[in-house]
Amino acid sequence: MERRGEPAILIVDPGGIGARVADARKLRGLTQQGLARRVPCSPSLVSQVERGSRPPTPWFVAAVARALHVGLTDLTGQPYRGTTGHTDRAHASIPGIRAVLNYWDVPPAALVAPRAPAALRADIATIDGLVGRADYARLGAMLPGVLEELSAVRHDGADGPRAEAAALLVHGYIAVKFLAYRLGYVDLVSVAVALAGSAARESGDPELSALVAEERGQVFLATLAHDVGLAFFARARREFEPVLAGSESGLAILGSMHLRSAIMAARDRRPGETWDHLGQAREAADRVGRDTGHHGLAFGPSNVRINEVAAAADLDDADEAIRRTEGFTPPPGLPAERSSHHYIDLARAQLAAGRRDEALRSLLRADRLAPQHTRNHPMARETVTGLLRAHTRVPESLRSLAHRMGAGPTP
């Protein structure tokens, strides 16, 4: 929502991913048939995506990016900057976050002494909550100051405070990774995960090292290295299973590794491997027996179901994605980011199945749950674009959603 007194600039995505695929293809001197051979896929799929008559799947976008030697965000168009100072707040925090990431090996020139450890622990707990709510603006506003204080403690403190500061920095850097990935700053994703790994080792807590390994999954997704990511997770599970298998928090990390692997396998078109990983995640969730939030991970039966729907949609099996959601509603206690993600994935499956009204209802629900997450999600924006093109008379609720997101074809 725009604030009064701020200039509003309506920025509408003129063509979405399909137009960017066409531009990148032509830059490489390829016909649609030539790109289809490289992907590989049918020429009709390339044509449909470029015309905007069929929203692309994450697999298609990743495959085209690899085939054309472009980055993922070159096709998604991220980051999607806001149209006012208010809506651009999360993006405006990125330069400050970049600056504090330099403090790992160079201490900050702090003008005031850091606060007491209890205050810093409370701030990290607040940051974890903002991640779960996908409140990118408040998260971006908090991170630079908290990371600077923790960095100062780590550089100047005795061994005990240094280890605790390092442990808290793990969560802070993971929050940076989350924000950077969701907003489309791919370069920061790898930097934040590398720093989190160094902090975990310094903390002396092997479970935190396992957590960082789990979080590294988004590096492989952001850089389209799905095959490498699957090999990495196979090794990480062997390495960390003795440490993790005996505790609920450890099972949450192991199960989340399987969920990350399932999505990477789906985006690499490996259906058998996809459902095998989801089955193993389900077994871990059944052992835990409830939805949990250890280390900020939303692991349990609900998130496994959400990933089953997402994986089926990524495999371009809309009917299976819809079937997997029958009788399921994300529970109220689940982080809004997870529930919103579920409805975004369900919406794209419903659109692919020709169920336009249901797709719109799902997108509107995602937007109510986590508007910043929905606005910045490439597949949500593509689904909005697809719905706009599919309607002769655009419903006002869809028009309003497209306006809020700055998504959709130019009228």
Name its key features.
mainly alpha, 411 residues, single chain, globular, disordered N terminus
Give the helix/strand layout.
Layout: H1 16-27, H2 32-38, H3 43-51, H4 58-68, H5 72-76, H6 89-92, H7 94-100, H8 117-133, H9 136-156, H10 159-183, H11 186-203, H12 206-215, H13 217-222, H14 226-244, H15 248-267, H16 271-288, H17 301-314, H18 318-324, H19 336-352, H20 356-369, H21 371-375, H22 378-390, H23 396-405
Helix pairs in contact: 1-3, 1-4, 2-3, 7-9, 8-9, 8-10, 9-10, 10-11, 11-12, 12-14, 12-15, 14-15, 15-16, 15-17, 16-17, 17-18, 17-19, 18-19, 19-20, 19-22, 20-22, 22-23
Strand content: under 5%
How large, in whole angstroms, is the Cα Rg? 21 Å
Instruction: Summarize the biggest pleated sheet.
Output: none
Number of helices: 23
Shape: globular
Structural class: mainly alpha
Number of strands: 0
Helical content (DSSP H or I, runs of 4+): over 70%
Low-confidence segments, given as residue ranges, are 1-12
Summarize model confidence as the mean pLDDT.
Answer: 93
Report the end-to-end length measured between terminal Cα atoms: 22 Å
Give, in order, the helices and strands.
Answer: HHHHHHHHHHHHHHHHHHHHHHH
Can you walk through the features of this model?
With 411 residues, the protein is mainly alpha-helical. Helix content is 70%, strand content 0%. It is built from 23 helices and no strands. The chain has helices at 16-27, 32-38, 43-51, 58-68, 72-76, 89-92, 94-100, 117-133, 136-156, 159-183, 186-203, 206-215, 217-222, 226-244, 248-267, 271-288, 301-314, 318-324, 336-352, 356-369, 371-375, 378-390, 396-405. Helix 9 (136-156) packs antiparallel against helix 10 and helix 15 runs parallel beside helix 17. The longest helix has 25 residues, at 159-183. The two termini are 22 Å apart. The relative contact order is 0.10. The model is unreliable at 1-12 (pLDDT under 50).
